[in-house]
């Protein structure tokens, strides 16, 4: 890949204005008894941060592109983001999903008016099917993470954190394909350079150790791909992507300070803590950041104030019941 063009702070600020009528400014609340603040993206209309990037991207399409419709490939939350944004902008949405996606996410995607097409569990299979249908029907592909408009949209989450908690020392983001982490780090580091955040603020990614392709890519400075047979082992269904996106990887190498992994037991423990001490309902993928803050502080930089992004709350009802 040639030298990438990085998303700018002004593009992120423009995205914030563009999505303001669709995505909400989610609450940032302190976890009782800790110096941890939780950015509750579970409060979005679709229960996930994914609405930010999807709406920012679809809102910039031409009238003809909107008329023909959009397509994406997603395990669930991006699917709902695209479906929600397409409906709001009067466009058709087709979603390619893995056949092992949680039923709650399949139902929610269909409820938003999208057509759902199923393939096997590999994220590469979803992408190939979307490209095939795009070529056949003229749909515009809305990538789940590997696109500058997606990155800028997801970055608006970090913009809100900096505005509400300007003296934050550390921000933790989940990482799968890298849209949220790359956007968060890009926003924070560029805001710091512009004097809009502390110059010492750090951004770290968090992922399950059973799907740690992003950490391996970050540590080796080489973009690696893990087989679906490995990444699908984690309970974090939104973090099973086999590889970071190319553009996301470049942003992460430039702006992210580190990536830490958590165990499945730690994810469960973090979910139980959120259910016990807050009114927030976390999905497993969203709880990895709190798991990192609670159980891996020794691997993270010292921080008087830490903000963790709870990326979503679309949890399977049976799993939720088992945690109570």
Automatic annotation (TrEMBL):
Looking at the record, the residues that make up the Tryptophan synthase beta chain-like PALP domain are: 20-312
Q: What is this protein called?
A: Pyridoxal-5'-phosphate-dependent protein beta subunit
Q: Which GO MF terms are attached to this record?
A: L-serine ammonia-lyase activity; threonine deaminase activity
Concerning its family, UniProt says: Belongs to the serine/threonine dehydratase family.
- What SUPFAM superfamilies does its record include? Tryptophan synthase beta subunit-like PLP-dependent enzymes
Q: Which UniProt keywords apply?
A: Lyase, Pyridoxal phosphate
PANTHER family (alphabetical): L-THREONINE DEHYDRATASE CATABOLIC TDCB, THREONINE DEHYDRATASE, MITOCHONDRIAL-RELATED
Question: Which region is the signal sequence?
Answer: none
Species annotation: Granulicella tundricola (strain ATCC BAA-1859 / DSM 23138 / MP5ACTX9)
